[in-house]
């Protein structure tokens, strides 16, 4: 159950779309990368579903950007990929925030989406 190039490609496909929407400060587009019933835990109280994701990212600074690196992937089931990411959230007026993010991706129809998102602050 170790990382494979195929699983990393799935993660990049989803996380690149997420990053693009975060960088553009488009909260509804960010939320579209999540399943309808996604469990979302940012650095504030958790929410379930796309409306909570959109509200969370709408409240973020307009200049926030994300840069990520995949640390690990696993495929616990055929239609599920788990990933552990190192993410730097950048800002123009404050220091970069480095966090770890775990995402559980689930294929729905022909598209992979985030079904679970958990942020851990470092240090």
Automatic annotation (TrEMBL):
Signal peptide: none
Domain of life: Bacteria
InterPro entries reported for this sequence: NTF2-like_dom_sf, SnoaL-like, Steroid_delta5-4_isomerase
Domain SnoaL-like: 11-120
NCBIfam families: SgcJ/EcaC family oxidoreductase
Name of the molecule in the record: SnoaL-like domain-containing protein
Organism of derivation: Streptomyces mangrovisoli
């Amino acid at each position: 159950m170790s990382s494979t190039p195929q699983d990393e490609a799935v993660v990049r496909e989803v996380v690149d779309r997420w990053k693009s929407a975060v960088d553009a400060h488009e909260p509804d587009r960010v939320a579209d990368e999540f399943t309808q019933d996604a469990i979302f835990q940012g650095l504030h109280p958790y929410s379930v579903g796309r409306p909570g994701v959109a509200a969370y990212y709408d409240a973020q600074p307009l200049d926030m950007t994300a840069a990520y690196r995949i640390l690990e992937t696993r495929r616990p089931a055929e239609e599920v990929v788990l990933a552990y990411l190192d993410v730097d959230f950048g800002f123009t007026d404050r220091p970069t925030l480095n966090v770890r993010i775990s995402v559980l991706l689930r294929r729905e129809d022909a598209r992979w989406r985030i079904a679970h998102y958990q942020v851990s602050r470092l240090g």
